[in-house]
Design goal:
single chain; alpha+beta; 4-stranded antiparallel sheet; 22 helices; 15 strands; extended
């Protein structure tokens, strides 16, 4: 998974690294920590007497130390003559005072920090032990029926499993044929599940992008949005809404946004089924917006990261007029499909602009070039910056341009002076005294000015102009929606030079599918290499890998039963299954091969291995399934992304375990020779 590119790699790359490092840590614990703890006899260590076991908890070390010190002081006082005793009397008095003070301090410290604290801790320990014992008894008695039922279930399952395994070993080819048929049926079932890139996240909020005709003033846009919000107040499932009208004039702002556009943010009331609640609210908002004349809208859900629109039809061509006509035809056909919502065309109504078309003959007659005239218009409209004004460390551009009041109308633009005509040279000019400028040339005399609608956006794909018709999907998966679009556009006659292509998330799915299939094959290959090196065999790992197709059978049935579509998340679960489902088969095959090496016949070794290993195989499967059940239930935000992966692992692992206990022994019996070289006996395994 760590080597996957695109959306899947960004979404689950950290997950793969987390699993890898956690498994490495658990391997180290299993190899070193667990054996160390298991080798220690904790009962003997706790029962062994300590060096201070004969000491009572209520005895004070300070009293014993004072007693020993007094005895030493008295003994030293009796030594020597009378003169020595009298001479050392002050020293002994000081020593006695020191012993008393030290005893008092030691007694207080030992009493406070030792006996009282020890007593409190002992009481707490007794209470904790009593509570733990009570809880242990309660849990033990409470779990006894469950343990009894589980044990009986295992015993009953083992009694049923033995004759079933015996019959499977007697009809090996039938089992293999049925397994192959089940795998083929699973692939057929998976082909009809439908696809999507990432499951839709339902957060109880969405936004409506509203656009009015280009040229609508900010006040008119605000009035229209106010009426829309009053209509939204009547929808009971909407808890709150707010709006943002216009657009901030920044470099990153959209080209088709302006005073005529607005964004309405909608937040919904809490609900148990948030997906149905959200779809109902969006349908109500569409009804409100659909009834507004001249209003174009688009409803968007918040996403974890930026993705392309679910459906995008790309119309490519170099002729802008034909491109617009073809895009409008495609847009009309997509609007007729009830499964598509919020159909929009990026070639929207553009902003009005004044187009200037120069008459080259008139310019040449006046001795002015097109570049000179265009530069003159640009200098007067946009302005030039001849210098800068510096004040208090700031630099302020000085822009020289025509007054806005002088270029406010089309007639004003036609009156702009773009140069002066060249006159015939006068005698003064011939004498080198300079030439007087000719009459001024206005823009209207050398060009035609016309108000036209400019393109709202010019997009290029692979070097060609392109129009993109985007839409959202309602009630269909992306693959089915793409098929409906292909059928709707099949009889559309395209002008020469025009072409159509379906992009959006559908193209991202195709790219992600190739990357994920490569990752799945790579995972299976790496697992095979590890097993081949450990078993020192080529055939045994292949038998173990047969559990992967059995897992796909369970995945297909699980996804079909829960109406879950194929997505990047499901493929990630499949890649994880490639490394999980082989564990049960490894445990089974490894023990069977060891029994065979000890001299048991192949079939008897397989039977015994299945009897011994059935319980650990089932237990390991149940622990994994129970650990993933909270993800399947879908608690918390973002459950829509986690649920398909957990469902894939649970369904695949469950089916693989059941089929592994039957199919793997049959395959092992088919590929293993009847006789084996007897090796030295090994200690029996539990």
């Amino acid at each position: 998974i760590a080597f996957i590119d695109g959306v899947a790699g960004q979404l689950f790359g950290d997950l793969a690294l987390t699993v890898v490092f956690s498994l490495l840590a658990s391997l180290a614990v299993a190899l070193f920590v667990v054996p160390t703890l298991a080798a220690r006899d904790w009962r003997a260590a706790l029962a062994a007497p300590s060096p201070d076991s004969d000491r009572r908890w209520y005895q004070f070390n300070a009293v014993e130390a004072l007693r020993d010190d007094v005895r030493s002081l008295v003994a030293s006082a009796r030594d020597g003559g009378v003169g020595k005793r009298v001479a050392l009397l002050p020293v002994r008095i000081v020593a006695g005072v020191y012993l008393v003070v030290r005893f008092a301090l030691a007694f207080v410290v030992e009493l406070a920090a030792g006996k009282i604290l020890f007593g409190v801790l002992m009481v707490l320990s007794l209470v904790a032990r009593a509570a733990a014992y009570v809880i242990f008894l309660a849990v033990t008695w409470g779990l006894k029926p469950i343990v009894w039922l589980v044990d009986k279930a295992f015993v009953g399952a083992l009694h049923l499993y033995r004759p079933l395994l015996g019959g499977a070993l007697q009809a090996r080819l039938v089992v293999v044929a049925l397994s192959a048929l089940a795998f083929g049926g699973a692939l057929y079932l998976a082909s009809g599940l439908g696809t999507e890139l990432i499951p839709v996240l339902h957060q109880g909020r969405f936004q409506a992008e509203v656009r009015l005709p280009v040229g609508t003033s900010l006040g008119d846009t605000a009035a229209e949005v106010a009426e829309i919000e009053r209509a939204l107040d009547k929808i009971p499932v909407i808890a709150a809404h707010s709006s943002f009208i216009g657009v901030e004039n920044t470099a990153g702002s959209d080209t088709d946004r302006g005073e005529h556009s607005a964004t309405i943010y909608v937040e919904l009331t809490p609900a148990r089924d948030l997906a149905a609640h959200e779809n109902k609210a969006m349908a109500s908002v569409r009804e409100v917006l659909r009834g507004r004349a001249g209003v174009q809208y688009e409803l968007l859900r918040p996403t974890l990261f930026t993705l392309q629109t679910p459906i995008e039809v790309e119309v490519r061509g170099n002729d802008l007029r034909l491109l617009r006509q073809t895009a409008e035809q495609v847009e009309h056909r997509l609007r007729d499909l009830p499964e598509l919502t919020d159909v929009r065309n990026n070639l929207r109504t553009g902003h009005p602009e004044v187009q200037v078309r120069f008459d080259r003959d008139q310019l040449q007659a006046r001795g002015i070039t097109v570049r000179q005239a265009a530069d003159a218009v640009r200098r007067k409209i946009r302005g030039v910056t001849p210098t800068e004004l510096r004040r208090d460390g700031d630099r302020i551009d000085v822009v020289v341009r025509a007054d806005r009041n002088d270029v406010g109308t089309l007639a004003d633009l036609e009156g702009l002076i773009v140069g002066h005509s060249l006159m015939a040279p006068s005698p003064a000019a011939l004498a080198g005294l300079g030439a007087a400028p000719g009459p001024p040339v206005t823009l209207g005399s050398v060009a035609k000015l016309k108000v036209e609608e400019g393109p709202s956006e010019i997009r290029r794909l692979d070097g060609h102009r392109a129009a993109v018709i985007a839409a959202d999907v309602d009630g269909l998966d992306l693959e089915a929606a793409a098929e409906r679009i292909d059928a709707a556009l099949a009889d559309l006659r395209l002008p020469r030079g025009m072409s159509l292509a379906i992009g959006g998330q559908n193209a991202e799915i195709s790219a992600a599918r190739q990357s994920l299939l490569f990752a799945l094959v790579l995972a299976i290959f790496l697992v095979y290499l590890v097993m081949a090196s450990q078993f020192e065999s080529v055939v045994a790992p292949l038998v173990i890998l047969a559990s992967v197709p059995m897992a796909i059978v369970g995945v297909s049935i699980g996804l079909w039963a829960t109406e879950t579509t194929l997505s990047v998340v499901v493929f990630i679960g499949l890649i994880m299954l490639a490394g999980i489902v082989v564990n049960n088969a490894i445990v089974l095959v490894d023990y069977a091969l060891k029994l065979r090496e000890r001299g048991l016949p192949t079939r008897e070794a397989i039977r015994k291995a299945c009897d011994v290993r059935m319980r650990p195989v089932v237990i390991s499967t149940l622990t994994t399934i129970l650990g993933l059940l909270p993800m399947v239930v879908g608690l918390g935000e973002g459950a829509e992304v986690r649920r398909p992966m957990a469902l894939t692992v649970i369904a695949g692992l469950g089916a693989s375990t059941v089929l592994t206990l039957i199919v793997i022994p049959v395959l092992l019996d088919l590929v293993t020779p009847r006789r084996a070289k007897v090796s030295e006996p090994e200690p029996a395994e539990p």
